[in-house]
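Hi F.,

I've been meaning to write this up properly since the lab meeting, where we talked about keeping a consistent format for the predictions we share between groups. The idea is simple: the sequence comes first, exactly as it goes in, then the structure tokens exactly as they come out, then a line or two of notes. No screenshots and no reformatting. I'm using this chain as the first example so we have something concrete to point to.
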Amino acid sequence: MLNFLIGMLQANLPVPPKRSAPSSLVCESETAPSSTGLSDHSVSQRFYRSVECESRHETAEFPDHTIAESAAVQRQITLEDTRRTALHTLSLCRNVIASLEITRLSKSRTGLHYWLGFWDRIYDRPFSRILSSRVTSALARIDALFRAVSGDLHQLTRRMQHAVTYATTERDILHYLERMEDEVSARRRRRRKKAQAILNKLRATIESIPVKVTDELFDDLKRGVFALDVFCDYHPGDPVAEEHEREALRPTRMVETSPYLQPTQPWHGSAAAGAYMPSSAYTDINTDWSEYVGDWHTPGRSILDLDTELQLRS
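Output, unedited:
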């Protein structure tokens, strides 16, 4: 009897619901048949869990397009920043190229004026004219060389500006700038080599006069007349040497007739002191120089006398 009652009680006990696996491990795609012991809360909980799992699968299969769009926008912003910086750099390069050449021309003309006046004061007219003609001839070739290279570099920056403006990637922009740097270095080396050849030839022609040209004097001549450094590149400037040059090579007094008719002055100390021997040492052994340079005046004659003589000759 007791055994019978125990069996009846066990048959009427409710069956406990089966626990589902965690949502992070198992996602049920279909709802299992509900048993009589499951509550509505468990059913709704399992329904929302399945919807959440389905949405996760969809997100994995079809990623959000906004992520790709934001990456593309970031790349475009980086490209525009790089382009803007590169164009600014090219603009600075053009300004530097023009500034260097203008500064060289200005310093060269000023230095040439001082040196020619200095030679006119310490040498006889035929000797100073020969020396000045050699220097001015070399200066004309240096000017032509540097102007040509400066214009070439300016055109190079223009071409690079056009290429950078229409570049589609940041890598292309950096490649253009690197290529421009290589081309500028190559042009600078060729310009330096040609300038050195011109000035070395000038030194040889001056020494053939003969005039003693020391290394120190040659470097001063490069800086003062040509505005170049010892390597025949643009000179950065030496304010101390330029001030000393202005004071030492400045004419001692004005001449009424003509600035080219100054009488031979005694030797004065200057940046070129010790470079040349007195002019009489050369005229004694080179008496035929007067054949190439005519005398412009006789001491004591004025401009009016020269004009009258020219009219009579004509």
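Notes:
The chain has a mean pLDDT of 72.
The two ends are 166 Å apart (CA to CA).

If this format works for you, I'll send the rest the same way.

G.
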